[in-house]
Write a structure and sequence with these properties.
With 324 residues, the protein is mostly beta strands. It contains one helix and 26 strands. The chain folds into two domains: 103 residues, Immunoglobulin-like, CATH 2.60.40; 146 residues, TolB, C-terminal domain (Neuraminidase), CATH 2.120.10.30. It comes from Brevibacillus brevis (Bacillus brevis).
């Protein structure tokens, strides 16, 4: 009996001691969520050495910001730092901006890290990155297939000992490929039959960073010449009432404005139109606002576009007189 009592005493003593010792709790390790965002550069397009570049990062608002935004810049200028860093809080996102002025040409990679904490105390890190090239302009050109100009491919190349990139397949192109800060513009033949020696074409654009051509339908499908200068598209087209007309349009608009009738070819140089009159076959010039129209050829001089294109150079205009 005494043995049983001793066993029970030891048993309950052990229970008491176990209850008096606080248990060791092994909690889950702290976790950190990672989210992305978008990065935009201004100005867009060609950026020169010494020109201020503004960075804007957009990040979804997942909590309150706990630390300052951290920018890093990797590029030819190793000592470059981000200036004027600001954070703008909106209802559903944060916008982080900063500026830098590159002093060396080449590729710069920008990385941003921003820490937040949500309502549950979880740490969230936003990571955003992007690249910009300084003094490194794309060169665009067209390569026909097997010498056949009716089919070919548009390429772009930075001429930096890297392989050229294919942009898009394209049918017969007419004239030059025009480039501005948003992308390129070109004419693609829509009717292989000549109209007085001039092809009828559709205006296409390809935005920088994309490979898909987009037809600008507002310009029609009977365009005969094209110039893209200072935010405006200037083009000539054959109309439904059998006329040639010179038009202009703002680059980001879908509306066109008549500049002058009876023009089947025009180009722009130094704020002047140089154009061919489809009625008297003469060569003219006129300011871009439509003033100071001047005939450049004699009355008995005839220029036929199907026999000789017009070339406008720095100090001369080249054409062929049909009398010779």
């Amino acid at each position: 009996m005494q043995t049983i009592r001793r066993i029970l005493t030891i048993f309950f003593s052990l229970i008491f001691l176990y209850g008096a010792i606080p248990p060791t709790i092994h909690g889950a390790p702290e976790s950190k969520a990672v989210v992305g965002g978008s990065l935009a550069f201004s100005p867009r397009g060609q950026v020169e050495v010494g020109q201020k570049v503004t960075i804007t990062a957009t990040i979804a608002k997942r909590g309150e910001i706990t630390e300052e935004a951290r920018f890093s810049i990797e590029g030819p200028d190793e000592e470059l730092e981000m200036d004027e860093v600001k954070i703008k809080e909106k209802s559903k996102k944060y916008e982080v901006t900063g500026t830098f002025i590159p002093e060396e040409p080449g590729k710069y990679t920008i990385k941003l890290s921003l820490f937040m904490e949500d309502e549950d105390g979880q740490e969230i890190e936003a990571l955003v990155d992007g690249s910009i090239r300084i003094n490194s302009k794309w060169i665009y050109y067209y390569v026909p297939e097997n010498g056949n100009h009716s089919r070919g491919t548009i390429y772009k190349d930075r001429l930096e000992k890297q392989e050229a990139l294919k942009i898009s397949k394209a049918n017969h192109l007419t004239g030059e490929i025009h480039q501005d800060e948003d992308g390129i513009y070109y004419l693609r033949v829509t009717d292989p039959r000549e109209l007085g020696g001039i092809f009828k074409s559709t205006l296409y654009t390809i935005k920088h960073g994309r490979n898909t051509p987009e037809a600008l339908e507002f310009a029609g499908k009977k365009i005969t010449s094209l110039s893209v200068v200072d935010g405006y598209i200037h083009f000539t087209a054959y109309t439904s009432d059998n006329k040639f007309v010179l038009y202009k349009s703002k680059r980001k608009s879908d509306k066109k404005e008549i500049v002058r009738e009876n023009v089947d070819f025009a180009t722009v140089s130094d704020d002047w139109y140089y154009f061919h009159d489809s009625v008297d076959q003469g060569l003219y010039k006129m300011r871009l606002d439509g003033t100071d129209e001047t005939k450049l050829t004699d009355d008995d001089t005839k220029i036929y576009i199907n026999q000789s294109p017009i070339g406008v150079y720095t100090d001369a205009i080249a054409f062929r007189d049909s009398n010779f």
